[in-house]
UniProtKB/TrEMBL annotation:
InterPro entries membership: C-type_cytochrome_biogenesis, CcmH/CycL/Ccl2/NrfF_N, CcmH/CycL/NrfF/Ccl2_sf, For-dep_Cytc_NO2Rdtase_NrfF
Domain CcmH/CycL/Ccl2/NrfF N-terminal: 13-153
CDD domains in alphabetical order: CcmH_N
Function: Possible subunit of a heme lyase.
Protein name in UniProt: Formate-dependent nitrite reductase complex subunit
Pfam families: CcmH
Parts of the chain that traverse the membrane: 107-128
Lineage: Bacteria, Pseudomonadati, Pseudomonadota, Gammaproteobacteria, Alteromonadales
Amino acid sequence: MKIITHFLLSCASLLFAGSVMATPVDTYEFKSVENQERALALSDQLRCPQCQNQNLVDSNSPVAKDLRLEVYKMVDGGKSDDEIINFMTSRYGNFVLYKPKLDSETYILWLGPFGLLILGLFIGFIFVRKQRIQESESTTLSTEQQAELDALLNNDKTIK
């Protein structure tokens, strides 16, 4: 009975251990809950300059830690979201944004996937059209081929 109890307790602790997560916000005291939520949302929109594929909240790099703290201080300081984003982009460029603004420098990011989709559809259309043309050409028989086919079919019927 003791073994079963220990086993169940171990399973339960493993189950609950996965749901416990520490966030970097725990170490910073915000002035209000709204500021905390706003700072987390902003940090979620900003990319870590060192990691490149993680936002500021998910990254453990020292640069991300410093930038998180900077964002938290700006939010508590009363700066607007646009002011914080402008500060970060002026310092690190558009790369720091997960969703960069639509301007002349980012047209390829926003319009590239649509261009590739159109190119793929065009190539698919050409391929299908070529296949249909080849199929229609190969199904028509000349009169000699038709006569030979009829002779073979008639010969097959007489054998049965």
